[in-house]
């Protein structure tokens, strides 16, 4: 897919607030976070981390956009729990944005296999990110990309359900704004 096709595809998906990723990224750079299903404890951990990073994102002039597979009502309830209710968010139950950005779907060992159990124990029991009702696609992995003028300038694509972005490294990228 060439850049024009990518930009057109971005323009076809409005957020719950009516803006597209293309429009947002023309205004200023956007940290786009692709969540796993809403019941995932790792998803909840990411939302908590994003809430803690909100001042830094604002200081770096980065907008936050969240892509999820929930309906908007479910998403707003979950986002409100982490004080992220004012964030642009995109309901994508058909996973079209996930596919556009090539966000990986994990196999069973990458999503709930033995290698994930220790991380899951630490996240759920030790850190208190209790799971909710599993969502539509428990095999969908997460990702985070920085999008500027419809170009990906930095990214982290999870290799398993416990693989969360190194936010400091991701946010340290150079954004070539004109």
UniProtKB/TrEMBL annotation:
Q: Which Gene3D superfamilies does this one have?
A: Glutaredoxin
The record, for Pfam families, names:
AhpC-TSA
Extract the PROSITE patterns matched here. THIOREDOXIN_2
Give a GO molecular function annotation for the protein: oxidoreductase activity
Leader sequence range is none
Q: Where is the Thioredoxin domain?
A: 1-176
NCBIfam families per UniProt: SelL_rel_redox
Name-wise, this protein is AhpC/TSA family protein
Kindly list the organism's lineage: Bacteria, Pseudomonadati, Planctomycetota, Planctomycetia, Planctomycetales
């Amino acid at each position: 897919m060439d850049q024009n096709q990518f930009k057109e595809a971005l323009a076809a998906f409005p957020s719950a607030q009516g803006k597209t990723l293309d429009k947002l990224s023309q205004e200023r750079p956007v940290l786009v976070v692709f969540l796993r299903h809403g019941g995932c404890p790792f998803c909840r951990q990411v939302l908590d981390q994003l809430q803690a990073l909100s001042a830094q994102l604002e200081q770096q002039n980065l907008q936050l956009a969240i892509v999820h597979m929930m309906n908007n009502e479910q998403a707003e309830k979950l986002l409100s729990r982490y004080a992220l209710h004012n964030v642009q968010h995109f309901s994508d139950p058909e996973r079209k944005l996930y596919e556009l950005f090539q966000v990986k779907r994990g196999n069973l060992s990458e999503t709930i296999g033995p290698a994930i159990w220790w991380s899951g124990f630490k996240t759920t029991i030790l850190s208190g990110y209790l799971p909710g009702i599993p969502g539509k696609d428990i095999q969908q992995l997460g990702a985070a990309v920085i999008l500027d003028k419809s170009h990906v300038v930095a990214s982290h694509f999870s290799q398993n359900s416990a693989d969360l972005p190194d936010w400091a490294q991701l946010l340290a990228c150079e954004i070539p704004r004109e």
